[in-house]
Every structure is written in structure tokens, then in C-alpha cells.
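Severity: low
Component: inverse-folding endpoint
Summary: output formatting inconsistent between runs
Steps to reproduce: submit the following C-alpha cells with default settings.
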């Protein structure tokens, strides 16, 4: 009776069960294999070396009980391989191997460190190559540094529960990381020579995309949450390579902790926001233009705070933020405009009431006098006969009212500018 797991996974050569188990040596649990880890690994290498080179070597569903380093041949070359549904309970090392054609690692569980450093995944002469890790789980670190993916790469719905490193790797064909979950990841100096997709991906912690090499708009992020986007770390140089679609954006890409710990990051993020704004302008996306403009100006204000300390408010940037939210907050600008218009009316009312007291009947003469003085501060209302100043107080009042009119006019312009930006989005 052949091993039922061989039948389940479609092995072309079902194996006989080992003594004391219903499964073969490859599919039997660790405690039922009846041999040491070294002897088991030797059986794996023997199967690979003796396999017919015209078809994929099938090791799907295999349970690897301990550490294993693959070195089945002097050339470090593996035939098309199938490891789908396997379980690696120990450290697995495929360093410096060349995979020809198909390399299937779908639904695999890696419980310890997985090393695929300096691997090469290439096409066979008679078939399009594919490397696939779909639905696999890495419980420990994964290392894909300096690997070359010349085949189509499917890494969809993968769960990385620890660090994964693709630093210096090259994706020379179509690649997809869609629906995957990353704990932390490094794509430092990674090359993307074809379309690469990160659709509905979750980035739990920092994901570094610094100094990447790619074609313009070849790396696609689709339907990401604001938290995931905030964990993507990239600079202005990478903006031209990346596209975002249907994503929920955070208020800022930077964190307060970052800019407090490293002053250089302020300039880097300012440059990043400027590049993102230029990209949005080119795409005629006015909403994102306004967003990146606000982010850029906010960081410039933070830079002024660091340089001037408590005197940062003596700056045009602070005033621009305070009274209109950098031209992007019409509600704030409207509140200030309303305040500037009615503040003189409030002051005159308080002064008159302090002299006359509060009465039940309306004093029309006093009300007329208050309004007459109030409209002197409103730039859109003109009096036919402006009373000539006769005293120093009258002169100061005339100068103050003129400056107040100018202030209202400037605030009205800021309100109109912010409102116009609001309706352009």
C-alpha cells in the first residue's frame, strides 16, 4: 500500500511507508521517520540526484525535521522543483543555487530561518520559468539578498512574521506580492526591471525602498491602508518608480519621532513632499497637490521651530499656517476672517456698555454710534464724510482702523484662496 500523502500530492512515483508508520520517509512525521536527520537529508539529496531531468522533481508535502543545506551537485544547480505543502522545522539553506524553470514553494511552512541568498531563478529552454511562494508562512527571518528572479515571481498571500531581506535582489520579470503580510522588509538597492505589484498588502512595521532601481511607474501599490503606507520608507529619488492607486493616505508620511531624532530627515521629507506634489501636478490630481503642499509647508515650519526656538512664530510661514492652514484650510481662514470683521464691533460695544450700563430699552443713538465707528474698520464699506482727526487719539484710531482694514483684506484673500483650493479638489 503506497503512502497516502504521495497519492494526495500526485507524486508520479508513490513511495512505500516506513516501518511503524502509514507514511513514507518523506511524509512521515519527524518521530516516525525511523532515521536521523542526516540520513533523512541524504534521502532527499539522493531523490534529487536520481530524478529524471525531463520533468520537475517532486518533493511536495515533505516534512523536513531539522536543518538542511542543499548541495546535491557540484554545479549547485537544481532541476525544476516542487516543494509545495512542505514543512521545514529546521533552518533551510538554498544559498547560491540556480533553479531551472519551475520552483514551487506554495503553502510551505518555514519555522526557522530560510536562506535563499544569491539564488538564480531562470527559464528552462522548453517552458516559461515560475518561482512561487504563494500562501506560504515564514515564522523566522527570510533572506533573499542578491538573488536574481528571471522567472515570473508569485509571492502572493505570504505571511512574513519576522524580517525579510530582498536587498540587492533583481526582479527581471513580472512579480506580485499581493495580499501578503510583511512584518519588516528591506528592498535596499533592489532592482525591478518589470511590473511589480503590491496589491492589498499589509506592512506592519518599516519597509525600506531606498536606492531602488526600476523603470518609471513600474512598482504599483494598490488599496493600501494609511498605516501600511506610513510604514513604506522611500525618498524623492524613488517617487518616479512608484504608483499608488485607491490607497488611504495618512495625514503625514513622516512621524514626529523621526524628525525629532534626526534633523537631516526634515530636509529629506521636504524634498519627498515636493516631488510627490510635482507628480500630482503632472497627473492633474489637485487633491493630492493640496495634500503634499500642506505636508511640505508643515515640515518647513518644523524646521523653523528647530532653528529659531520659541521665536519661530516671527515668520511668514507660521502666519501662513495660523491664518489659513497654508492656503488649504478654508474653515480656519473663514473663522479668522469672521473674527477680524466683528472684533471691533465687540470692543466698541463693551466700551459703550461700560459707560452707560445695560438697560432694558435699546438706545438707538448709542447703537448708531457703535455701528458708525465699527464700519470704519470694514474695508468694503466706505463713509462719504470721514471725520478729520482732531486729537492724538483720533489720529491713532484712524491709523489703527486703516491697518485693520488691510488686515481684513489680506485675510479675505487668504480665505478666498483656501476656498478656491477646496473646490479644485
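Observed output (run 2 of 3):
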Amino acid at each position: 500500500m503506497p503512502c497516502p500523502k504521495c497519492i494526495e500530492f500526485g507524486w508520479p512515483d508513490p513511495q512505500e511507508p516506513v516501518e511503524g508508520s502509514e507514511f513514507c520517509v518523506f511524509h512521515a512525521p519527524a518521530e516516525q521517520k525511523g532515521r536521523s536527520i542526516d540520513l533523512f537529508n541524504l534521502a532527499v539529496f539522493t531523490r534529487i540526484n536520481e530524478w529524471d531531468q525531463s520533468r520537475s522533481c517532486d518533493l511536495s508535502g515533505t516534512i523536513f525535521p531539522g536543518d538542511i543545506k542543499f548541495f546535491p551537485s557540484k554545479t549547485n544547480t537544481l532541476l525544476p522543483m516542487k516543494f509545495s505543502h512542505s514543512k521545514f522545522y529546521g533552518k533551510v539553506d538554498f544559498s547560491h543555487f540556480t533553479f531551472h524553470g519551475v520552483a514551487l514553494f506554495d503553502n510551505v511552512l518555514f519555522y526557522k530561518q530560510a536562506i535563499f541568498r544569491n539564488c538564480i531563478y531562470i527559464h528552462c529552454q522548453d517552458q516559461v520559468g515560475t518561482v512561487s511562494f504563494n500562501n506560504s508562512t515564514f515564522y523566522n527571518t527570510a533572506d533573499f539578498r542578491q538573488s536574481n528572479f528571471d522567472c515570473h515571481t508569485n509571492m502572493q498571500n505570504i505571511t512574513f512574521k519576522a524580517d525579510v531581506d530582498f536587498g540587492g535582489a533583481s526582479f527581471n520579470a513580472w512579480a506580485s506580492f499581493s495580499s501578503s503580510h510583511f512584518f519588516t522588509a528591506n528592498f535596499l538597492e533592489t532592482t525591478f526591471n518589470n511590473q511589480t505589484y503590491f496589491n492589498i498588502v499589509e506592512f506592519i512595521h518599516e519597509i525600506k525602498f531606498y536606492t531602488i532601481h526600476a523603470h518609471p511607474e513600474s512598482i504599483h501599490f494598490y488599496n493600501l491602508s494609511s498605516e501600511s503606507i506610513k510604514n513604506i520608507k522611500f525618498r524623492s529619488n524613488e517617487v518616479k518608480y512608484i504608483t499608488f492607486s485607491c490607497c488611504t493616505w495618512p495625514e503625514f508620511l513622516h512621524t514626529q519621532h523621526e524628525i525629532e531624532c534626526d534633523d537631516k530627515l526634515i530636509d529629506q521629507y521636504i524634498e519627498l513632499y515636493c516631488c510627490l506634489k510635482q507628480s500630482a501636478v503632472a497627473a492633474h490630481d489637485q487633491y493630492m497637490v493640496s495634500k503634499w503642499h500642506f505636508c511640505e509647508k508643515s515640515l518647513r515650519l518644523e524646521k523653523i521651530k528647530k532653528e529659531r526656538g520659541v521665536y519661530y512664530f516671527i515668520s511668514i510661514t507660521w502666519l501662513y499656517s495660523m491664518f489659513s492652514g497654508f492656503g488649504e484650510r478654508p474653515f480656519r481662514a473663514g473663522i479668522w476672517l469672521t473674527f477680524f470683521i466683528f472684533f471691533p464691533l465687540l470692543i466698541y460695544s463693551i466700551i459703550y456698555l461700560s459707560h452707560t450700563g445695560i438697560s432694558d430699552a435699546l438706545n438707538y443713538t448709542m447703537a448708531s454710534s457703535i455701528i458708525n465707528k465699527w464700519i470704519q474698520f470694514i474695508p468694503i464699506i466706505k463713509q462719504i464724510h470721514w471725520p478729520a482727526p482732531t486729537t492724538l487719539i483720533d489720529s491713532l484710531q484712524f491709523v489703527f482702523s486703516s491697518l485693520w482694514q488691510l488686515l481684513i483684506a489680506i485675510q479675505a484673500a487668504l480665505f478666498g484662496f483656501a476656498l478656491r483650493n477646496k473646490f479644485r479638489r
